[in-house]
Amino acid sequence: MSSWRQFKAILKKDIVMELRTKEMLTSMGLYALLVLVVYYITLSQAGADFEVRRIAAGLLWLVFIFTSLLGLNRSLVHEKDQGCLEALLISPTDRPVIFFGKAVGNLIFLLIVEALIVPLFFFIFLARPGAQAGGPVWMLALALILGSIGIAGVGTLLATMSVNTKGKDFILAVLFIPIMFPLLLAVVAGSAAVLQADPEYVRTFWQMMGLAAGYDVIMLLAAFGLYEFVLGA
Amino acid sequence: MTDAALTSNALEVRDLSRTFGARKALDGVDFDLPTGAFLSIFGPNGAGKSTLLKVLSTLTPPSKGSAKVLGLDVVEGAVELRERIGFISHNPLLYPDLSAEENLEFFAEIYCIDRPKERIRELLDAVELDHRRLDLVRTFSRGMLQRLSIARALLHDPALIYLDEPYSGLDPHAMDILDGLIERVREGRTFVMVSHDLSKGLELCSHALILSKGRIVLFQDKDLIDEDEFHQTYRSTVGLGVS
Which among A13, A78, A94 is the nearest to B106, CB-wise? Predict the structure, then answer.
């Protein structure tokens, strides 16, 4: 059996279904937009002297963490609803192939939402006349990609664990945020370094990206090894 | 020559137990089923029928004992075994937002089938759904879903097919179509069916098994079954109910 062929089939199926229903992208996109509206109302009370750039990285990642929780839950519910997960489990597909197929799908959807929300966030909160210039865009993009890989990988594992439980939304959130803490710390600090572009920001950025990449590798390997157990439980 | 062809038994179940916490879903189940047979499994709710099917289809490992399906151990040979079994459930196991053809294309890729387009066309024709191949599965009736589900289960030409209450929720016409389909693909294959419908189960089977509280109450060749006695045994078993 070709694992690559099976991986492509799972990924293609998730993309085709999402393009058809737009369930995940619509809910994630709308939710992210609503959070931006709440930010706007809140920050409008902070006064003209308030430097949004100082907290911008935290605000941005807050949107993506909560938005991804919505999407991650949906991605497994599709499989569970019609018993399709059972059909996959009874097929000769290695469990890690199922994991990577689902995780890469979740990563793509999260990156699409980020690609829409980040420019909007800059336009609303950071693009002001005379505003301080940040670091290069590619550095922020790298932080977003490394953060999203961790979110999609760990999130797919935890969503699979919680999909059979009664309070799956609650359980996913309760497990997800503490486990994501080291990654969040790294990507928020790395993104903040780029956005503020203080002296020495490049060194801080690479230190944080190293931490994020290390987290991603360790957690993806752990998820790879644990997925069979999680599916069998 | 496959292992199944070499062994005369499609199923060899030895002292099989499966526990969930303190509850014993299966308790010392032990039987052999010859290759090419049709086994109907009966029993009240909670008797362990679905758990037995899950263990035999590699979805759940046994807690104790062993089971060989087509000569392969359900734990050690699980990956190889999954290439050779099909599963038809009362749940269609199909993606509602994909068309009939897309669903079969997906599973054809999952089973790495050569020349999938030809196989899919052949199966859609066999289950009389060729005219609806581009329609989303969510628009299908229960009977059509079940026919497509059969096409999905037959894609990789399995040697053994599990049927988990396949007639559940079907109208008489859809039941007739399903009967015809099973009859058409029956030759050379082994079937294991879980059913609550005694007459349908007995009509199709070559062997019958009654489970209660995870234990075998009766396992018999159909030719040796006295139907009155069988019904009486079943009624007394259902009377035992779930613990």
Answer: A13
